[in-house]
Amino acid sequence: MTEAPVLVIGAGVQGLTCGVVLAEAGMRVRVRTAERSRGTTSAVAGAMWSPPMADPPGKTQYWATLSHAEFTALARDPDTGVHLCEGRIASRTRLGEAPEAKLIPDLRHCGPDDLPEGFAEGIRGTVPLIDMPRYLDHLVARFREAGGEIQRSAVRSLAEAVDESSTVVNCSGVGAHELVGDPGVYPVYGQLAVVRNPGVEEYFMEITGAGELISVMPHGDRLLLGGVKYPHDWGPGPRAKVREGILRRCAAFDPRLGDVEVIEDLAGLRPGRQAVRVQLERYSGARVVHDYGHGGNGVALSWGCAYEVADLLADGGSA
Ligand SMILES: Cc1cc2nc3c(=O)[nH]c(=O)nc-3n(C[C@H](O)[C@H](O)[C@H](O)COP(=O)(O)OP(=O)(O)OC[C@H]3O[C@@H](n4cnc5c(N)ncnc54)[C@H](O)[C@@H]3O)c2cc1C
């Protein structure tokens, strides 16, 4: 009897990147997803590779490093949706230590003249910026080209998943709260305004523990303005009041953003968790590798996590 394909749950950035890594390594892979990839949280992300400052620290540094190399290589082909962009990451208080910042080739600290009003510390440098809808399309095409199959259907339980395949990769994002009953997974509501770009070429990202922040991500004619981080808020969105706040903060930050045409509002649930979970579990005789709980760093960690998933499957023996 032919063995069933590896079953990946989820077609966000984690599920698709795992799918690509496993299929390109020669495995038969099926992705099952409740939503099409353009309907996931991943499609809403800004998105930038930035030093993650997430737990577990040693692991996330390693995953961020691998992902940085992949995104830098992908940026050579504009059709992937990835490009390299200069800009600033700044804080109104202290920026904190992020060892992976050293991967930014032209990294320098912002002098007082290079900091927006009210900001205390910042760094300037070039990082990969990822236009998520286009990038997810690129991953889908690459996955299919490697022989992967995508099926639009929700998985009701892990028991159902392991009935279908003896090797399961769980990339269900905030859906892991229900799918695996992980009480540590919670939503962190986010919202962005997509506006016609009035000529902004640099990114800006505010680091803060507060719920409201400023983020500016240029993708050619489209400019993504943010944002909010509301833990334990399941939505729904987008909300007019949040949009108003975003536009107000961004206009105060850069006068060019004072009168912009809003094309679209985007909202999504970051999969919050105290630490990212990439772990092999034996479940009813099957191998289940979990890969979820990336919070606001799921894109920046995606390639490193997918390689770790592949390593766990290679080291984990047969079911
Ligand atoms: C406004 C905003 C800005 C962000 N900016 C950045 C950024 O700049 N950089 C960065 O690195 N990250 C950023 N993030 C975070 C990033 O988007 C997430 O960490 C990442 O998308 C998580 O990816 P994922 O694949 O784990 O989850 P998701 O994209 O949520 O995908 C989960 C998948 O699992 C499927 N699923 C769930 N349950 C089931 C089930 N029972 N059966 C079948 N399928 C199921 C869903 O349908 C979906 O396909 C941002 C997020 C937001 C909201």
TrEMBL record:
<dbReference type="InterPro" id="IPR006076">
    <property type="entry name" value="FAD-dep_OxRdtase"/>
</dbReference>
<dbReference type="GO" id="GO:0016491">
    <property type="term" value="F:oxidoreductase activity"/>
</dbReference>
<dbReference type="Pfam" id="PF01266">
    <property type="entry name" value="DAO"/>
</dbReference>
<feature type="domain" description="FAD dependent oxidoreductase">
    <location>
        <begin position="6"/>
        <end position="312"/>
    </location>
</feature>
<protein>
    <recommendedName>
        <fullName>D-amino-acid oxidase</fullName>
        <ecNumber>1.4.3.3</ecNumber>
    </recommendedName>
</protein>
<comment type="similarity">
    <text>Belongs to the DAMOX/DASOX family.</text>
</comment>
<keyword id="KW-0285">Flavoprotein</keyword>
<keyword id="KW-0274">FAD</keyword>
<keyword id="KW-0560">Oxidoreductase</keyword>
<dbReference type="InterPro" id="IPR023209">
    <property type="entry name" value="DAO"/>
</dbReference>
